[in-house]
Amino acid sequence: MKARTMVAIAHKEYLHLLRDYRSLYLAFALPLLLILLFGYALSLDVDHIPTVVTDHDNGPLSRDLIRHLNATSYFDIIAFPRETRQAVEYLDRNQALLGVVVPAGWSADLLADRQSPLQILIDGSDPNTAGLTQSYMQAFVSQYNSQRLNDYLNRQGAAPILPPVEGRIRVWFNEDLESRNFIVPGIIAIIIMIVGAMITSLVIAREYENGTMETLRALPVTGIELFMGKALPYFVICLIDVLVSVLTGQILFGVVIKSGFWLLVLASAIYIMVALALGLFISVVTKSQLVANQVAILTTYLPSLLLSDFVFPVINMPWVLQQVTRLVPATYFIDILNGLYLRNLGMGNLWPSYLVLTGMFAALVGLNLVAMRREGL
Questions:
Q1: Where are the alpha helices (DSSP H) in 121-210?
Q2: Is the pLDDT of residue 41 over 80?
Q3: What is the secondary structure of 89-109 as a DSSP string?
Q4: Residue 239, C-beta contacts closer than 8 angstroms, at least 6 positions apart
Q5: Rounded Cα distance, 56 and 83, in Å
Q6: What digits encode the pLDDT tens for the residues 230-270?
Q7: For 57-86, how does the pLDDT look when each residue is reduced to its tens digit (9 = 90+)?
Q8: Rounded to an integer, what distance in angstroms lies between the CA atom of residue 33 and that of residue 28?
Q9: Cα 227 to Cα 87: distance, rounded to the nearest angstrom
Q10: Cβ contact 2:9 at 8 Å
Q11: Where are the beta strands (DSSP E) in 158-281?
């Protein structure tokens, strides 16, 4: 393997990149657009739930309940329909996700220490949002009941009743429970797979379509030299994209890496090489830029987004899909990113994921060399 030959091939690919503005757009503009889009638009947090309240009681305690409900960050009261039927229409038209109906005489029953039910209507179209909304309402009602009980005991001159079991909850790693803190690092894995695999999937296919593959076969170039020379410019581009993504996440979203920065660079370098090797293999096998682009989307971008524990938890998937996720490189890179960004872990804890990615790169290089040898390189 000659370094001079690899540099010459890399220089040729670099000149082609300068002339191909579409590849440059895909390499630099698209990653920035994705991190802005995912960072601002994709959020798994459920708050400011549109709520309508129908108060048939209109008493002092019902008004106090409504004030407490509207004071939380989880509920935004958008309307006060007079009839229950009108509140239901808000849910039917998808204008509200939660409806609270206070029956007539509710305040009087509460003051008389009688059972005082509330009717709570939840839009269950989205099970995740509906489940969280139900949990929020249960916690709100429980807290309101505790406050009313303490007020009653104070009026009677009794000491407040302490619950026998008190759960003292402490959240680790993502103390603010912000989904952005794990979404932004996960975007880096998606960006690298898009830029690395999708762009390099066009490299060898372009040689076939332009009729220059025969020239490459006639040159004194080995398969590994062609592989390294073709991949080198895109490796630099992907590494720049990683640094830009890290900097953008820190400046715009306040997501800061907790562990060593060079561990992130090492993991990114290995993952970039995996993405490039996969893209080049697709390019050699398909020999068509259109087909290569479509295959790259199906085999890299979609699995990285759907089967990498990024958006959808792997533990909730069927057993067969859980085994498939083990073949997705983004699964291991996202595991490393979560460890570096959220858990402040080091190489002693993350080395299995580093090792798997390295093994994937070695296997893909072997597949590329076999495919290039069949093509006469």
A1: 127-156, 180-193, 199-200, 203-210
A2: no
A3: HHHHTTS-SEEEEEPTTHHHH
A4: 265, 268, 269, 272
A5: 8
A6: 888 888 888 888 888 888 888 888 888 888 889 999 999 99
A7: 888 888 888 888 888 888 888 989 988 888
A8: 9
A9: 64
A10: no
A11: none
